[in-house]
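Researcher: We're teaching a course module on how sequence relates to structure. For the next exercise, students receive a sequence and then see the predicted structure as tokens, so they can try to spot secondary structure elements on their own. Here is the exercise chain.
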Amino acid sequence: MPRHLIPLALVLALSIGGGAAHAEKADRLKPIVLTSEKQGRIDSVNQRTELFGNVIITKGSLMLNADRVDVRETRDGFHQAYASGTTGKPVSFRQARDVPGEAIEGHADQLEYDTKTETVRFIGNANVRRTRGATVADEVTGAVIVYDSRTEVFALEGGSASPNPNGRVRMVLMPRAQPDAPASAPPAALPLQPSTTITPPKKPS
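Model: And here is the predicted structure for the students to work with:
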């Protein structure tokens, strides 16, 4: 097979939701709040903060939970967070959508979040879903999933770190509307009854 025809990764784009709604716009103006159970490390010179032990990052409706997080401030004042989980406890992410009751949720072995581009990169055994209340509306899984919260476009990559067999990308898209209910059965026929108003014809003599 020619070298230029060998697929290195399967990359797909999917706009989940089908409408014009996006991630919660008010989150962009909210401050970043970081908490952890263990002592952290702050490097003021390099504008870098490291936190350990059940680290929780919130920014409005956005919430990220990881075992370890490294947050760096860029020269133009934005932040980049690099989060990692532990065996049996991956990094989790959740952010509300503009649609009431809907949210984007996901988890992966590692996660990268950039406040400038408003993108989230799920790395290793990645799973991202759109929820409507307690119901999963759509779901995607793969080795790497990149989520752009401004446009709600997902870029999916397969690979050895995919939770699916043979490293494949997997998408589950639920129908937007429920199928029509089956037509109701016709009413049961009533038994014949003798008429009380019609006089039967006389028999010929």
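Model: If you want an answer key for the exercise: DSSP finds no helices and 13 strands in the chain. The two ends are 102 Å apart (CA to CA).
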